[in-house]
Amino acid sequence: MSTSIALTAVAFLLVSDLTNAERVLGAYIFQRHGDRTAKAWPPTKLTSLGYSQEYMTGSFFHDRYISANSSYKIDGISTDIITASAPQDDVIENSGVGFLQGLYPPAGSVAEETLRNGTTVEVPLNGYQLIPMSDVQSGSGSEDNSWLQSTSSCGKAIISSNNYFDSKSYESLLSDTRMLYQSLEPLVNETFSASKLSYKNAYSIWDLLHVALIHNSTTSFPSSTILNDTVIQELLVLANEHELNLAYNSSDPIRAIAGMTLAGEVLTALNETITSGGKSKLNVQFGAYAPFLSYFGLAELSPHNVNFTGIPNYASSMAWELVTDDEGTEIPATSDIRVRFLFHNGTSIEGSTQLQTYALFGQSTIELSWAQFVDETRKISIQSQDEWCQACGNSTGICASSSGAGDNSSSSSSADSCSGRGMSLGVAGVIGAMVTLGVLVGLLVLSMIVFGLRFVPKSAVAGSHRGSDASTVPVMKTTAA
Ligand SMILES: *[C@@H]1O[C@H](CO)[C@@H](O)[C@H](O)[C@H]1NC(C)=O
Ligand SMILES: *[C@@H]1O[C@H](CO)[C@@H](O)[C@H](O)[C@H]1NC(C)=O
Ligand SMILES: *[C@@H]1O[C@H](CO)[C@@H](O)[C@H](O)[C@H]1NC(C)=O
Ligand SMILES: *[C@@H]1O[C@H](CO)[C@@H](O)[C@H](O)[C@H]1NC(C)=O
Ligand SMILES: *[C@@H]1O[C@H](CO)[C@@H](O)[C@H](O)[C@H]1NC(C)=O
Ligand SMILES: *[C@@H]1O[C@H](CO)[C@@H](O)[C@H](O)[C@H]1NC(C)=O
Ligand SMILES: *[C@@H]1O[C@H](CO)[C@@H](O)[C@H](O)[C@H]1NC(C)=O
Ligand SMILES: *[C@@H]1O[C@H](CO)[C@@H](O)[C@H](O)[C@H]1NC(C)=O
Ligand SMILES: *[C@@H]1O[C@H](CO)[C@@H](O)[C@H](O)[C@H]1NC(C)=O
Ligand SMILES: *[C@@H]1O[C@H](CO)[C@@H](O)[C@H](O)[C@H]1NC(C)=O
Ligand SMILES: *[C@@H]1O[C@H](CO)[C@@H](O)[C@H](O)[C@H]1NC(C)=O
Predict the structure, then answer these.
(1) Under 8 Å between Cβ of 261 and 307
(2) Looking at per-residue confidence, does 233 or 79 come out higher?
């Protein structure tokens, strides 16, 4: 009896020691938008369901990374105010807002402000935190666009994806499935003409039906004789095959441009967390499914697990965490830092199936040393605009000044004209990389201001630091924690 109690106590100590030993130093989240209306019926909109999926997922990440008593709390992260940026796409941008509402819920009375004359100002909506999101030009309207690669604007990637339509496997699927798609005619004839009903439009057709299966409460839908479970499953598998082949091909890496630039951004951001001594801690980026599929291929997740060949569900999340066993309070030496990858297929909700770790790059261990992560990521990533221009074979537009295209060592002068926001060349490069993602919303948790009752600088009203920071701190940079 007493032995077992002692054992339990020891076990408890061990467990708590283990959880205390690890510190999360920073994280990068890539978040798919929530449930939306069909792409075939633009303008595509985030639905209330999608909004709540994002809000719940944001709350989940709040509880994981920000909550004071979470064992995954990011070391030293502010529990209050954040600043963010995002480009224009109704679905993705609104997803970002919903996510942020969950990530940083209303601050309540903490957000109250006492004026010089003693008046206390109460904040609307229980201290709802205004998070300024500046627009990034690229990626506009990508959710209205049925073919995501076309929004990547990477010349060679577009050509590569298009090659799929000339491949044997495409041709044979196209003819083998003709009957199946034609059989859907009575269901979708208001949207797709008979000539459009083929594997060529596998994703758009699946998307329309998938949206209808969630939202269409008309009793005549679906016509069960046409759309039984077998057919639904078949259409999903075909849509997955179609989109995977446009997003990734092992013998033609450039096709995965969306994943390459994402990998580069993750590396740059996590590196920044380390090199800045922890000034930037949490990065959130919103986007569509193409970067997921591209990254799954590049990071060797899909070759080892067939689940990763499928389009992730709405509100899916990928996260890369920087962790250490070092017991100090500072960022330790890189030799003491590890990286792990997590994914959850769909809305993350506290308590249910959650983020799960997966081994990257075909390794047998879940956690990679920082050095190993850098080595492996460098092989699959694009980290600068020059690299992007070179890889994509683009030499006009944002690439006109790039050394990549013409081997003309860059003289930065023309880069200023296209950034237009006083960004440094390096940052313009990252934005250039964003162009390749097209579908992405870059959302960086910028300066996290400690917003306590005892420590409220006069200017620290929610959002008011935008002016001072935005002019010096570029969109992709993170500042004080
Ligand atoms: C700490 O965790 C407990 C149990 O999960 C929860 O009930 C409580 O609200 C948390 N406290 C804070 C301050 O987050
Ligand atoms: C205090 O200042 C605010 C803002 O100028 C004003 O609205 C308010 O009436 C003032 N209160 C008093 C008691 O003077
Ligand atoms: C890159 O080149 C392709 C093909 O010429 C073009 O469609 C695309 O807009 C270019 N992208 C940029 C960012 O200039
Ligand atoms: C990669 O693309 C080429 C050309 O489009 C195609 O022949 C090949 O089958 C593809 N590979 C895979 C694994 O799909
Ligand atoms: C679509 O098909 C249904 C069922 O066959 C038919 O009643 C309807 O008139 C068709 N609509 C159009 C626009 O062709
Ligand atoms: C719902 O399904 C019915 C019957 O198939 C169709 O006529 C209607 O357009 C659909 N509405 C929506 C919003 O999907
Ligand atoms: C589903 O529909 C297809 C095509 O109409 C048919 O071949 C198949 O037998 C059906 N399956 C089930 C389980 O009803
Ligand atoms: C990390 O940042 C440092 C300092 O900016 C830079 O020298 C180094 O090349 C970066 N490493 C990676 C992997 O980006
Ligand atoms: C794939 O996903 C299914 C359903 O979530 C799960 O049961 C299965 O174990 C997964 N397969 C692998 C290899 O992880
Ligand atoms: C996520 O769920 C979708 C739909 O069920 C499936 O097709 C896909 O393979 C899943 N992805 C993973 C990584 O489990
Ligand atoms: C770089 O390009 C500019 C404009 O096309 C040209 O005038 C210059 O000579 C080039 N420099 C080099 C080193 O090729």
Answers:
(1) no
(2) 233
Question: Where do the domains of the chain lie, and which CATH numbers do they carry?
Answer: 23-105+124-156+258-450 (3.40.50.1240), 157-246 (no CATH)
Tell me the per-residue pLDDT of 370-417, one tens digit each, with 9 for 90 and over: 999 999 999 999 888 888 888 989 888 888 876 544 444 443 333 333
Please work out whether the CB of residue 312 comes within 6 Å of at least one atom of ligand 10.
yes
Residue nearest (by alpha carbon) to ligand 9 atom 2: 307
Atom nearest to 305 CA in ligand 9: 13
pLDDT attached to residue 180 = 93
109 CA to centre of ligand 2 in angstroms: 19
- 327 class by beta-carbon count within 10 Å (0-12 exposed, 13-18 middle, 19+ buried): exposed
Ligand 9 centre to CA of 308 (Å) is: 10
- DSSP letters along 83-141, please? -EE----HHHHHHHHHHHHHHS---GGGG-EE-TTSPEEPPHHHH-----EE--STTTT
Strand partners, 455: 452
d(CA 345, CA 375): 27
> Which string of b and e fits 16-30 if b means at least 16 CB within 10 Å?
eeeeeeebbbbbbbb
- Tens digit of pLDDT for each residue in 302-318? 999 999 999 999 999 99
Which residue is closest in CA terms to ligand 8's atom 9?
271
Q: How far is the centre of ligand 1, averaged over its atoms, from the C-alpha of 7 (Å)?
A: 27
**Number of neighbouring beta carbons within 10 Å of residue 171:** 12
Hey, whose CA ends up nearest to atom 9 of ligand 2? 119
Encode pLDDT of 44-84 as tens digits: 899 999 999 999 999 999 889 988 888 898 888 875 445 45
Res 244 pLDDT > 60:
yes
- Phi, then psi, of 319 in degrees rounded to 5: -140, 140
Cα(87) to ligand 3 centroid in Å equals 19
pLDDT of residue 141: 59
Locus of tokens 């054992």: 7
Query: Which residue's alpha carbon is at the smallest distance from atom 6 of ligand 4?
Result: 167
The Cα 331–Cα 155 span in angstroms is: 40
- Centroid of ligand 6 to alpha carbon of 221 (angstroms): 7
- Residue 133 binned pLDDT confidence (cut-offs 50, 70, 90): low
